[in-house]
Amino acid sequence: MKKQNPVSKIIERYLRNRYNQEMEEKVQRWLIDKNREAEKNQSLEAYWNSLPETASPATHSSLSQVKKRLGMANSVSTERISMRRQWLRIAAVIFPFVLLTGSYFLMKNLDEKRNATVSISVPYGESRKITLPDASTVFLNAGSEIRYAASFGKTARGVKLSGEACFSVAKDPAKPFIVETKHLSVEVLGTEFNVKAYPDETETTATLNRGRIKATTKTGRAYTLRPNQQLHYDSRSNSVALAQVNAGDFSAWKDGRLVFAGQPLGTILSAIERKFDVAFQTGKTLDVGERYSLKFLHNESFSEIMRILETTAGIDYRMENKTVWLTKK
Amino acid sequence: MHSNVTIETLEGLKRGEHRAFEAVFLCYFDKVKRFIAGLIRSEDDAEDLAQDVFAKLWTNRETIDTGFSFGAFLFTMSRNTAFNYLKHKLVHVNYMNEYTQREETDTPEELVFAKETELLIEMTLSRMPEKRSEIYRLSRLKGLSNGEIAALLNISQKTVENNLSMAIGEIRKEINNNLN
Questions:
Q1: Residue A223 carries which DSSP code?
Q2: Is B158 in contact with A58 (CB distance < 8 Å)?
Q3: Is pLDDT at B131 greater than 60 in this prediction?
Q4: Residue A97 contacts by C-beta under 8 Å, 6 or more apart in sequence?
């Protein structure tokens, strides 16, 4: 048994796992720091040594790019190409063997990479735009997480969502894009849409901006949505409702806006909690089921929003650290 | 480690033979790219940087010392390239945010590696279910009692206790575990 020092542990974990962007940057900053340079180098060299020396068709296209850059003629004869193909074939045979005899670190590393899941989460108080390997973009709202296999896009395009996200999907009819949430799965037929499925809310909604999507509940009921249609699924009553909405209102959060069209106060408060990373405590006198239509379009601050709620909904608020106490006026 | 690249090939590269450059490129390019991608976490940029490494290798081919390990030489070039990229990328971000407090498992080694241990704890926390890491932070960083956390998050005290002991267990394991 060899005791690993924290330096090699950090490097090994970092190379093996994905972390959120902030965490990865923190590790990177630590990595380039001059402290513990010898230990860091030792671990990095072990990683370097674990990587195989093989080429793929993509390597050849990189080679011609570099040769072009360096002004070298691309003068490979056909004979040498076929030789190289042969060499590639040999490399393909040798590779599994190298895997079997390679070091523990290499095996572990490759194995976990192959089955790896990429997970991206956004904490409360933030939202983030990410690009998937197929060039589809996803805006993740505050307090949301998206997971997908590292092999995403090779055979299928599936993501798992907890929370809220707005998807803009790259067209690829051969590989349907499927968003899975706890209660609802949404299959995309090339398009832009918003899915909201926070684990602490019983309602899951899918709203279509452009194109066409097919939403299927876990109980097997399927609905095809047209633009500006919204599907609500309530997990408590297992009921589905379709509504005609202005879809832009429901993806407004990705531009920093908060738009509520006739939504219960409880839903509005949850959205504010996530956006500003605060926690509301409501007294019994406050009716969280009452519906309001509110628009905050100019990146209003928390206190500005609270002032508007004070007047429109007749709420008094008191703030202690991150807890906000609400009472009826 | 230059199983596929012989001293003759390296000498050919030093003399400026395109064929030798191709052989070295095909043997090492993917390794360099994967190494850089692992560090910088961007495939696209890793491709560009790996190409830079080989362009530089060609430009400075005369300085290659065939008496030393060529693999180690390329390793150093690749590492420096990745580090330079990271330095530029991170230059705007403030250096070193404050770290979380350490779990009280300090052995002399953990004290010597205090900064590293803290970073490991943060890495572990960032991969836990959000609720669990939140409970840990509220307890260890904000110093709230289990009862206060239960009230704040509107969950039972038992849930707080369970999550806290799972979080602490995971962190201890991460800090103390050995590599066989």
A1: E
A2: no
A3: yes
A4: none
Both A278 and A204 in a single domain? no
Q: What are phi and psi of B99, to 5 degrees?
A: -90, 165
- A-contacting residues in B 57-96 (Cβ below 8 Å): 58-59, 71-72, 75, 78-79, 83, 86-87, 89-90, 93, 95-96
Is the distance from CB of A142 to CB of A127 less than 8 angstroms? yes
Give the domain ranges of chain B. 7-90, 108-176
Q: pLDDT of A209-227, one tens digit each?
A: 887 788 888 877 888 888 8
% of chain B residues with pLDDT over 70: 83
Reported as a single tens digit per residue, the pLDDT across A251-269 is 878 777 888 877 888 888 8
A84-114 per-residue burial string, b: 16 or more CB within 10 A, e: under 16: beeebeebeeeeeeeeeebeebbeebeeeee
**Closest CA of chain A from B32, distance in Å:** 8
Q: Is A320 exposed, middle or buried (0-12, 13-18, 19+ CB in 10 A)?
A: exposed
Which of A218, A250, A282 is the endpoint of a domain?
A250
Assembly ipTM: 0.81
Closest-approach residue (CA) in chain B for A22: B126
What are the backbone angles phi and psi of residue B169, rounded to the nearest 5°? -60, -45
- Which residues between 68 and 87 in chain A have a beta carbon less than 8 angstroms from any beta carbon of chain B? 69-70, 72-73, 75-76, 84
Do A108 and A154 fall within a single domain? no
C-beta neighbour count of B62 within 10 angstroms: 9
Q: How far is A222 from chain B (nearest CA, A)?
A: 31
Give me the CATH code for the B7-90 domain, please.
1.10.1740.10
Which tens digit of pLDDT belongs to each residue from B80-103? 999 999 988 886 544 444 344 444
Give the best residue of B19, B39, B42, B176 to mutate against chain A (max A CB count within 10 A): B39
Same domain, A64 and A178: no
Class of domain B108-176: mainly alpha
Positions in chain A short of pLDDT 50: 1, 75-114
- Please give the pLDDT value at position B21: 93
CB atoms A44 and B1 under 8 Å = no
* Chain B nearest CA to A226, separation (Å): 35
Q: Is residue A1 part of a domain?
A: no
pLDDT surpassing 90 at residue B135: yes
Which residues of B, range 102-141, sit inside 8 Å of A by Cβ? 109-110, 113, 115-117, 119-120, 122-123, 126-127, 130
B contacts of A35 (beta carbons < 8 Å) = 115
Structural domain including A313 reads: 257-328
Q: Considering its fold, how many domains does chain A have in total?
A: 3
